[in-house]
Amino acid sequence: MHTHVTRIFACLSLSAAIAFGMLIAPPVASAATDQTVALSSIPYGGSNSFNGLLRDGTGAPAVAVVLLHGRGSTSDGPVVHELRISLNDAGYTTFSLDEPVPAAGTAFSDYISDVNNANYVFPETYARVRAAIDWLHTNRSSVKSIVVLGFSMGSRMTSAFMAYGGLPTGVMVPVVGYVGIGMYATSGVDPLDIGITLPKWTATPPVLDLYGSADTNAVDTAQVRRSSYMGASADYTQFSLPCASTLSTNECHQLVGLKGGDTMPLETNVAAWMACHAPLSGTPVCQPLPLSAAGSTSGSSTSSGGGGGAVGPTWLLLALMLFSRRRSRTARRAVAHRSR
């Protein structure tokens, strides 16, 4: 009798497991590959040709993410590499752009000198972002809205774009979200200082302001950034992720140990914010942030908001789906890193 009951229970457990697995099983992992797209900023007020690194989302997504990298880096550099791939895995089209650099070099002082003299870098950046948005509008007709994402110097550039750049003439593809990683309201120089450009944004989409807990300049200017935002307080989500105590400030700035897979804190939190503020399905799925890699609330938050929408089981399924993709992502990520 005991053996019979055990067998029945085992069968029922197996059936339940199969049913639950069918419920949460993710779609086949994205087979997207990098495409180098040749672009020109000249028709948009710039002066150069440049490249963008494109990954098409599955199922003709309505939302695309335009990314700008950190100082002295590339369109596949730290932080943007992880996010352009993880967001693409989630279904978004991602477009990471080469940035202009000052003629003198990539020291921060070179950017200040450029702003005060040649004034090449920032106007050229605005033209490149406009070119990328127009390219998506023309060549990816499913794309109806844009999220702009910048890391470090890229966040300075994208914040300045929101203040001074403007969309291409005749292109009705709105910016519906802004993600800044490692944002600094430092230098006191417009347009390098995010504390100066944030109040001048011509539109106020929801913002994610995320940084490492020991990234000194980001921590020290967090209140300035938050108070500078001119949109609704509920649309500004700001928090830090806990860096290991052994990391340098620069390593924490680059979120070492907090990125590198779809279930890591950086990728998980950005994906959760996107699901709430720029959902592919059109139905927001929101969860209090920050989340740990496992999907629970963690870290240090000074957010004015970021909630809204449906909260609960749907996000649990999303977290489980992201976790189940980790193994299939490992091999492709190794190939991507070897090609950098």
Q: Structural class per helix/strand content? A: alpha/beta
Q: Helical stretch count? A: 12
CATH class designation: Alpha Beta
CATH topology: Rossmann fold
Shape: globular
Strand content: 15-25%
Q: Outline the low-pLDDT stretches.
A: 1-29, 304-340
The tally of beta strands, per DSSP, is: 9
Report the mean per-residue pLDDT as an integer.
84
Return the string of H and E elements.
Answer: HEEEHEHHEHEHEHHEHHEHH
Total number of distinct structural domains? 1
Task: Give the CATH H-level superfamily.
Answer: Alpha/Beta hydrolase fold, catalytic domain
- Please compute the radius of gyration using only Cα atoms: 21 Å
The CATH architecture comes to: 3-Layer(aba) Sandwich
Question: What does this 3D model show about the protein?
Answer:
- The chain has 340 residues and is α/β, with parallel strands linked by helices.
- It has a single domain, classed as Rossmann fold (3-Layer(aba) Sandwich), CATH 3.40.50.
- Helix content is 39%, strand content 15%.
- The chain is built from 12 helices and 9 strands.
- It has helices at residues 2-24, 80-89, 108-116, 121-139, 153-165, 194-197, 216-220, 222-228, 249-253, 265-277, 313-324, 326-338; strands at 35-40, 49-55, 63-68, 93-97, 145-151, 175-181, 207-212, 236-241, 300-301.
- Helix 2 links the parallel strand 3 and strand 4 (93-97).
